[in-house]
Amino acid sequence: MSGKPRLHYFNGRGRMETIRWLLAAAGVEFEESYLEKKEDLTKLQKDGSLLFQQVPMVEIDGMKLVQTRAIANYISTKYNLYGKDVKERALIDMYVEGMFDLNELLMTYEIQPADKKEQHFANMMDKTENRYFPVFEKVLKDHGKDFLVGNQLSRADVQLLEIILMVEEWKPDIFAKFPLLQSFKARLSNIPTIKKFLQPGSQRKPPSDDDVVDKVMKIFYS
After folding, report:
1. What is the pLDDT of residue 97?
2. Which of 62, 82, 124, 166 could in theory staple to 105 by disulfide, Cβ–Cβ 3.0 to 4.6 A?
3. Global pTM value
């Protein structure tokens, strides 16, 4: 078995995409095993690989880690994306928890029933523009550095860039209101490991199309 982390999930963004982003930003190569049908999930559940019967699951350093935040915490600590002291880590945690809340709204849009999609979209864009992005614009202004916390790249920066690029897919003109987020996006996207992840052919996943959504519904909800 190779020493690379192995990610177990479907071939789409979902809750695993943040994990992919963190590994890529850290310059860590990883492998993926995709769930293609419900039986693939059942097999992992039956062989004891999933502590709470759920994915994402990441095999790393001899462990089978589940729970998105636990996986992200481990990777961020191991690869020095978690600040230099306990105060920086507290700020990173605070910002990242807000990002997880926003990401949940963005991520679940694609699986909304047809009659709920319009309302969900309006709600998520309203919260993006009026609750979350103003906070991070202010943090960048008040901190006055290239990064959200301290003076080095952290998971907070990586996770914010992931969200910025997702939102931009839906509303490209949103950053007219947020010039510091716009320059943050350009700056972070030029970091070599991240620049590589943003190139075509990387392990970054595209927005989910109807086929991916259909597969997800069959694996997890049938």
Report:
1. 97
2. 124
3. 0.95
